[in-house]
Amino acid sequence: MIRIDIDRNDLEQQIETHKPGWLTDAQTKTDELEADTTLKVTSIWSPIKQVFTDLQFSKCVFCEKEIEDQPIEQDVEHFRPKNNVKRWKVPNWMENTEGVHVSQPNSGSEDGYRLLAYKFLNYAAACKTCNSTRKRDYFPIAGTTRKNNSKNPATMKSEKAYLIYPISDLDDDPEDLIEFFGLSPQAKKKSGFGRKRALVTIEMFQLDDDDERAYLFKRRAMLIYLLFTALEKVNNGNTQQQAEGQAGVDFLTSSKCEHTNCLRCFKKLYDTDFPKAEIVSQEAFKLWTTGSP
Ligand SMILES: [Zn+2]
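Above are the sequence and the zinc ion SMILES. Below is the predicted complex in structure-token form.
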């Protein structure tokens, strides 16, 4: 997971350019929902899906998998669920050893954030696995009061949301909270709420589950091997190889490539601990080519 670096005003402008009038419609619809609490949320977000797909270089905002650039393959994810918030069961190990507690209904569900249904800073493009299978209607918070009548995602910090919203500078930078050791995402901080946010995010999307999300691991493995090869060209190649290698390194560690956080961490490892990076690249090659670690 990485931050999608864009100024909030620029994002607003991109939406207006892509679908003139959408923002006005969204405001009208929000006003109507606020005036009539029985009114149902209706979908108007599909016409601006492409803005998020382009902004995210066709990658899922949560798992950094590249998603086919077809509308059917991607969901507009409502970061804070618009209808209901369901109970998310904290795994026992996380509760017992990490002290992660979730303030939420103990069973069933409670009202979602209907006034955020048409707020673009509550949107992101996500893959079907992350959105429909994993996140669903969950939104665990540590704060005691769910602000489900709020209309402004920028003023909801007191909820202490566990999940990280990566678009713009609205929330923490995911790379400050999650780092990779080889193929495996881990909490970067040793303690504190930032550590808990990383743990819940990794768990929610199974980002460290090489069984359930084997495809993510295979792609990370292939790309780590490619990055290792590119770095070796930069360091040991002739002039032409160095230029090719550098172009490869630049692309693979940019936001445009899949699994950017993983690859940036691997580059850091290569720069600081070459023997370990070499071992990781050999393991990655094996996983990529044989499918087993
Ligand atoms: Zn995903």
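The mean pLDDT is 94.
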